Amino acid sequence: MTIKDTPEEWEIRGTQTPFVGKKTSVRTDEVVMPGGAVVNRDYQVHPGSVAVLALDDADRAVVLRQYRHPVRQKLWEIPAGLLDVPGENPLHAAQRELYEEAHVKAEDWRVLADVYTTPGGCDEAVRIFLARGLSEAEGDRFAVEDEEADMELARVPVDELVRGVLAGDLHNNCLVVGVLSLVAARSGDGLDALRPAEAPWPARPFEA
């Protein structure tokens, strides 16, 4: 038995979009179940995201602390952002986010993990990159606003982040998946065996 997610699409009898927001929307599909019943399934339609676990030479990760209104908490996160342009190359988007949020560039990029954040209620797909060989970016710092104007920036040892995840002190999904994927990769075939930065991503097809 091969343990691998596979594409599949059940019949949809009808669809509506009762809400359209600035970046996302809510869709209601009438889906035919295996027994023939038709049920409504509501979900958020999302453009997709990228996130970056950026490691420096001291094995510290670049992390940000940002207010997240839906959960009423300030969360420690790794740099991340939306795929604002349909078909956008996720590597280019990740490089942009690392520059804008941390004013950092990286020489070596790999794919750590591809995840659906909440597949029971949202179609958001996130590609989490590993970035190494960090250096200060050139040019002016990106102008921040709203929640980002209150954002804190730090570099935290990976071991400390792992302890925080397992203790239940850190909750951001990209940070959790990224940090634990990093540890798993190190204990397995090594970081150089990770997928290349431009590996195919069926969930969000892109142009090289």
From TrEMBL:
Entry keyword annotation includes Hydrolase: yes
**EC numbers for this chain:** 3.6.1.13
User: What top-level class of enzyme does the UniProt entry assign?
Assistant: hydrolase
Which domain of life does the UniProt lineage start with? Bacteria
Q: Keywords in UniProt for this one?
A: Hydrolase
Q: Name one GO molecular function term.
A: ADP-ribose diphosphatase activity
Chain ranges of the Nudix hydrolase domain:
44-178
Q: What name does UniProt use for this protein?
A: ADP-ribose pyrophosphatase
Q: Which organism is it from?
A: Streptomyces thermodiastaticus
Organismal lineage? Bacteria, Bacillati, Actinomycetota, Actinomycetes, Kitasatosporales
